[in-house]
Amino acid sequence: MKVSKEKIGLMVAGGVVGLSAIILTVFGNPKNMGFCIACFIRDMAGSVKMHSAGVVQYMRPEIIGIVLGSFLISLCKGEFKPRGGSSPFIRFILGFFVMIGALTFLGCPLRMVLRLAGGDLNALVGLFGFIAGIAVGCFFISRGFSLGRAYKENKIEGVALPVVNVVFLVALIAFPSLLAFSETGPGSMHAPLLLSLLIGVIVGALAQRTRICMAGGIRDIILLNDWTLVLGSVMIFVVALVGNLVTGSFKLGFTGQPVAQTNHVWNFLGMLLVGLASVLLGGCPLRQLIMAGEGNTDSAITVLGLFVGAAFAHNFKLVGNATENGPNVWGKSAVIIGIVIALLIAFFNSKIKEEK
Amino acid sequence: MFEVDCRGLSCPEPVINTKRALKSHAEGVIVLVDNRVPLENVTRFAHAMGYNATSVEKDGEWKITIKK
Prior knowledge:
The complex is a heterodimer of chains A (356) and B (68).
Chain A: H1 2-26, H2 37-47, H3 61-76, E1 83-84, H4 88-105, H5 109-117, H6 122-142, E2 151-152, H7 155-174, H8 193-210, H9 214-224, H10 230-247, H11 264-281, H12 285-293, H13 297-315, H14 329-348
Antiparallel strand pairs in A: 1-2
Helix pairs in contact in A: 1-8, 1-10, 2-13, 3-7, 3-8, 3-12, 4-11, 4-13, 4-14, 5-6, 5-10, 6-9, 6-11, 8-12, 9-10, 11-14, 12-13
Chain B: E1 2-5, H1 13-24, E2 28-33, H2 36-48, E3 52-58, E4 61-67
Parallel strand pairs in B: 1-2
Antiparallel strand pairs in B: 2-4, 3-4
C-alpha cells in the first residue's frame, strides 16, 4: 500500500506544480514560464551582475522559495542531512553544461513540460533529445557509472546555500538598488514578489516530500521499468494543459511560441545535453535545488555550476536566441563540447564491479 | 548474507547495485543505506522483484534485509 501512497503524493505534487505555474503566468511571469529553473537562475545571475544581458535580470523569489521550502520541510521531517564530497568539481562542470544545454533550448526540463502543455511543439523536439540523453546516461549507469560516495558534513556547510538564498531575499526586499532588474524582456515579467515566494516555498516542500524529478522519472522507466516517478511530470503536464486551455493560452505549433527558438537540431541536442548531464548528476535542476535545500552540498555546487554556466552563456552569447533561429557557431560549439565532456566523464567513471 | 554497502551513494546507484547483487545472490541480500530516498527506492524495487524487504534504522543508517 505504501507504493500507492507514493504515487498519490507524486500526482498531488505534480498537480500543484502545474497549477502554480499557470497562476504565476496569469500574475505576470513570462508565457509558459510559470517555472523555469534554468531561466530563473540565469535571471538571478544577471540580477547580481554576473552577466549584463539587460533583458534577463531579476532576483526570482520562486528559486529562493523552492530552496527554503525544501530546507524547512527537511528540517521538520528529520531529513536535513549535510553531506557532500562526491566529485564536487565534476558536478560543477556538469551543472555548467546543463545550463548551456538548457539555455540553447530555452528552458529546463520543467519548463519543457510546461511548454509542451502550452502547445509549443519545439518542446516535443526537446523532449526527444532529453529522452535520448537520459538513455545514454542510463547506459553508463548500468555499466557501473558512479561519482563516488558522499560523506557526512557539519551543519554549517549544509545550511550555507539556504543562507545565501536568505541573503538574496533580504537584498531583494530591503536593498533592491544593489541588484539589476530588467526593464524589458522576460526578466521584466514577473508575478508579485510575495506570491512567487509563497508558491516557491509550497512547491519546494512538496517536491522534497515526493522526490519529484523530470529526469529521474524517465530514467526509472528506462533503467528499472518503474513508472512511479514519471507520474509527477505527467500530472504537471495535464494540469498545466487544462490551465492553458481554460485561460486561453494554449497555442499549438512551432512558430511564434513565447521565449522559444525553432531550430530542431539544436533544440534536440541542447536537451540531449541536459538529459545526459542530469542523469549523471542524479537529478534535473529542480531536484538539485531540492537536494541542496536538504543539505546536500554536492547539489549546492551543482547549482553554483548552473549559475556560472548561465553567466558564461550570456557573457559569451552562447544561448539560443528567441528572436533568431537557434544558437550561433560558438553556442553550437559549446553544446557539442558539453556533450563530449559529459560522455568522457561518464566513460571514465564507469566500471562494472564484480559482486562475488 | 551478502552485504551491499550503498552508504553515501545517491539514487539510482543503490537500486542498481541491489539489482546487480540479487543477480548473483538470488536468495537475498542485505543493503546498507544512509538516506531515506534510497531506503524507499530499494524497498520499492525489492517488492517489485517479488522479494520481502524489512529495514532497521540505527544512527541515521538503515539495514535493509531483502529475501524471498
